[in-house]
Amino acid sequence: MEVAVAAYVAQFGTIEGIMVLEKVSQQWRRWARHHRLWRDRFRRMYYDEFAFLVGDQGEHADSQEWRLLCVQHNMDYSCGYHLGAPQQDEASMLRWIFVTRQAINRMSRNVADVLESSPPECKPLDEATYWQRSMEHLKRLQDNVGEWTAGEGGRHELHAKLADHVQTIKKLHHQAQWNAKYFKVLESPFRAILFTDMKHVPFVVTPMIKTLKMMWLSSKYYNDCFKMGGLLGRIAHALSVRVSRAISITALLHGDGDFQDTIDMVECAGVMLERWHQVYDPSSTVWGPFDMYMLFHRVDFVAQRCSEVRSALVLLRQIRTVLIEKVQNSDDASQIDEFEEMLRSMDTDLRRHWEGIDDLFADEHSAAWAHGIQSLRSHSDALLQFVHRLQDKIPIY
Fold first, then answer.
1. 28: closest CA among 37, 18, 40?
2. Is the pTM of this model over 0.70?
3. What distance in Å separates the CA atoms of residue 307 and residue 147, rounded to the nearest whole number?
4. Which residues, 6 or more positions from 295, have their beta carbon under 8 angstroms from its beta carbon?
5. Which tens digit of pLDDT belongs to each residue from 112-130?
6. Where in this chain does the record put each Dynein heavy chain tail domain (predicted)?
7. Is the residue at 33 inside a domain?
8. Do 202 and 180 lie in a common domain?
9. 374, containing H or E segment
């Protein structure tokens, strides 16, 4: 059984499974801690770090506590392990230098790179989460590094390098603390962009912009045109995506009633996008300069499309409520049949142009959308003329 357990640990065991395994019996723990098995496992899973720690000095390989190091590595950060023997002390310091260097590299990345895999509409909220988690991780790392003494001989250089890493981590932690404070306030509007009813989103834009301007004045990190401009660009993109997710072609092709709910939503989306223009004026000296294209190009495109959608909805409402009612009041069956045939022709043309549009705001559907709008206006004019002619024939008593 012990041999089987040791083989499982070396080949297939997960960190969580091994932690449970250690609680089972003293005998199993003895096999789970087998030095050679853990050394081989660490070399197989993290070869670059293994080579870095061992180098050309074989005694470092023998002085490492490989089981603990493997657990530490799977938890992202080492949790600290200091032994008294000089070789073990030096090996442990080498490990801390590696761990802190990796943490510095990870926490110094460009935010745009960190958020690369996030969906566009989620990036502002994910940026807030990133700074909160960075603050927590760096605090934990700071607490775990502890105090190290210089020692003697060759270890003094290692101690100086680790001390330099610790100072850098303290600066990164202070930076993350400051940014997390502002993003704590921004988290609410970022969530509103994602989840709140569109009718309420316009009301969060102006306060959000005020907080962003306060961040520019106070944050050493975001008081930078590139970094703040990147954040503003991500917010602008998130607003645009929110609108494109909320408004679909289905509302125009299959909407019933008077389209008022859809018209209200489209109008709210337009107001939200218009208020976003309060974020930056190129003549302003308050902050910037920022890339106007990044801040407003997509927003303006979506706003223009919203205006076109609203016009189309108003036309459809006029046709399906006012004009239909007037034709029905004529009490002329043949005229009603002709009008209904005109309606069916309009519906057929609109479906031909618009049914293939899965994203109303996608550039590749611009031509189909424009052709549909042209067809709608043409049918609307014909229907309106028909009703006018019909009314001229109705006798007045």
1. 18
2. yes
3. 63
4. 229, 232, 233, 236, 279, 280
5. 999 999 999 999 999 999 9
6. 92-354
7. yes
8. no
9. helix 366-393
Contact 82, 92 (CB under 8 A): yes
CA 160 to CA 163: how far, in whole Å? Answer: 5
Domain containing 302 equals 196-397
> Tokens representing 60?
């470092």
Q: How far apart are CA 38 and CA 70, in angstroms?
A: 8
Q: How far apart are CA 234 and CA 245, in angstroms?
A: 16
d(C-alpha 144, C-alpha 137), whole Å: 11
Answer for the pair 353, 371: CB distance below 8 angstroms, yes or no.
Answer: yes
pLDDT tens-digit series, residues 67-87: 666 666 664 444 444 444 455
User: In this predicted model, what pLDDT tens digit does every residue of 150-183 receive, in sequence order?
Assistant: 444 446 777 788 888 889 999 999 999 999 999 9
Residue type, 391: Q
Higher pLDDT residue, 368 or 88? 368
Q: Are residues 226 and 369 in the same domain?
A: yes
